[in-house]
């Protein structure tokens, strides 16, 4: 599988080479004196940005001598034809974060244009507003997938991380005209933080972790954060993430680890 922002004429050949090298690595040499078996994996290209004339399949024709011919078909997912609703219907939730690429070409075009900086800033301002709206819809879709049991909290976190990283790249490229990175980061937190807190509370009740939830009632902010931190530690989350989502400091997390280890909960 290969993700491509834009189409290039060698993409299918590149995929074929990857497939062949993989097949050679896993070749069956058990009957090498008579027949070596190569099993080519099924290839897939995910093309992110619109390209005229690209079909659902790219075919490679191989000729062996004068008589033998072989065709190798490579499937193409034309991502620009998928909106959030279609991705949901076809169980492609993990591709939600790539919706941001729907606007990259326009942003690049504005940046490279011969317009004045003032004109570019105005045009980029309009596109960035569209981007914020698109990302908000994407976060709502991710939240719905989580609500519907289609993804787990780890998936939720990874998808949000992907969005933040892609957005950060865009911001680095185009922030000269408008800085929208912080706005998107805050948007991520507004959707994801309540889910982390909610899951922490649920697991606190399930595991009966003391000082966190007593009969489903939170007794103070510190206890609430501590309960969430404990559950994230028990789920194997790293310290940086726990600190980021609970606001507890590094020393507090270390003490919690010692506490859980002493109880045998690790």
What does this structure look like?
This protein is an alpha/beta fold and 266 residues long. It has 3 domains: 2-80, no CATH class; 82-196; 208-262. The chain is 55% helix and 14% strand. The protein contains 9 helices and 8 strands. The strands form 3 sheets. The chain has a 4-stranded mixed β-sheet with strand order 1-4-6-5, covered by helices on one side. It has a two-stranded antiparallel sheet with strand order 2-3. Helix 6 packs across helix 7 and helix 7 (221-234) runs antiparallel to helix 8 (239-246). Residues 204-220 have low confidence and may be disordered.
Give a concise summary:
This protein has helices spanning 11-25, 84-89, 104-112, 117-147, 153-174, 181-207, 221-234, 239-246, 250-262, and strands at residues 2-4, 28-31, 35-37, 44-47, 57-64, 68-78, 213-214, 217-218. The chain is of the alpha/beta class and 266 residues long.
Pick out its properties:
3 domains, 9 helices, alpha/beta, 266 residues, flat
């Amino acid at each position: 599988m290969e993700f491509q922002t834009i189409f290039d004429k060698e993409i299918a050949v590149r995929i074929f080479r990857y497939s062949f090298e993989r097949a050679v690595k896993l070749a069956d040499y058990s009957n090498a004196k008579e027949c070596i078996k190569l099993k080519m994996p099924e290839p897939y290209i995910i093309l992110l940005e619109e390209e005229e004339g690209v079909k659902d399949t790219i075919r490679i024709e191989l000729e062996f001598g004068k008589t033998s011919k072989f065709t190798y078909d490579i499937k193409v997912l034309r991502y620009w034809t998928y909106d959030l609703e279609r991705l949901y219907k076809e169980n492609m939730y993990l591709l939600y974060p790539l919706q941001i690429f729907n606007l990259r070409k326009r942003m690049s075009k504005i940046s490279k244009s011969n317009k004045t900086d003032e004109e570019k800033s105005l045009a980029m301002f309009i596109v960035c507003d569209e981007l914020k709206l698109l990302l908000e819809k994407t976060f709502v879709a991710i939240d719905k997938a989580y609500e519907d049991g289609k993804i787990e909290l780890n998936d939720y976190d990874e998808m949000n991380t992907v969005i933040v990283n892609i957005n950060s790249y865009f911001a680095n490229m185009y922030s000269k005209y408008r800085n929208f990175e912080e706005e998107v980061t805050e948007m991520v937190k507004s959707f994801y933080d309540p889910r982390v807190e909610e899951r922490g509370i649920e697991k606190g009740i399930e595991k009966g972790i003391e000082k966190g939830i007593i009969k489903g009632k939170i007794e103070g902010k510190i206890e609430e954060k501590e309960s969430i931190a404990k559950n994230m530690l028990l789920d194997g989350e790293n310290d940086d993430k726990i600190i980021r989502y609970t606001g507890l400091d590094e020393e507090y997390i270390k003490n919690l680890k010692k506490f859980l280890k002493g109880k045998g909960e690790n």
